[in-house]
Specification:
Number of helices: 1
Largest sheet: 5 strands, mixed
Helix content: under 10%
Shape: globular
Number of strands: 13
Radius of gyration: 21 Å
């Protein structure tokens, strides 16, 4: 039996008794790749076309697509929304994806024929890849995020979202230092 690779991070799973005189080096590569999974990486779109980013099997080099934070750039100006498919379609993974492409276009993150998530130009989204194979879906992990307690923000855009029976209220705190426009916004009800 030869070495195999884990599904989600594509890490080397060494065959028992194999890799004589290489075992330590191969283990070090695997540990380095585990560490990179908590870091950030950059993937560049080299053309104004849809593309696929494939998480490669563990080797002697790191793979940017293994990173938790993935910054997508482009060396060309995009002229339309481009689909970025992340493969293989069997990995289940959470990504923080930044759209740092040029041209002011969105990118659609895809994994299979299921749902996609669109990341507007200049935006960052947290997405989950479900790894369901050909029907794999990508979901926006922060949609319907429920926050409790006090949540402070340096700036916020309040749109016409339904807040049900609650109200969005602005108050001027006794010390407005550090608050946008000297106000604190919160939902009551």
């Amino acid at each position: 039996m030869a070495d195999t690779f884990s599904n989600d991070l594509r890490l080397r799973l060494q065959e028992a008794g194999a890799n004589s005189n290489q075992w330590g080096d191969l283990l070090n590569y695997t540990i380095t790749n585990i560490a990179s999974a908590f870091g950030s990486g950059t993937e560049n779109l080299a053309s104004d076309a849809n593309t696929t980013i494939t998480l490669a099997d563990d080797g002697s080099s790191t793979d940017e697509a293994r990173s938790l934070y993935l910054k997508v750039t482009s060396s060309v100006s995009l002229t339309a929304t481009r689909t970025v498919t992340i493969g293989p379609n069997t990995i289940s993974k959470v990504y923080v994806i930044e759209n740092a492409t040029t041209g002011g276009q969105a990118i659609a993150i895809s994994q299979g024929s299921g749902a996609n998530v669109t990341v507007p130009s200049g935006a960052v989204k947290v997405v989950h890849l479900d790894g369901a194979g050909s029907g794999a879906a990508v979901t926006d992990s922060l949609v319907d995020l429920h926050l409790t307690g006090t949540t402070a923000m340096a700036a916020a855009t309040i749109d016409s979202r339904d807040v049900g029976t609650q109200s969005i209220v602005s108050t001027a705190p006794s010390s407005a230092s550090g608050y946008p426009n000297g106000h604190v916004w919160y939902v009551t009800g």
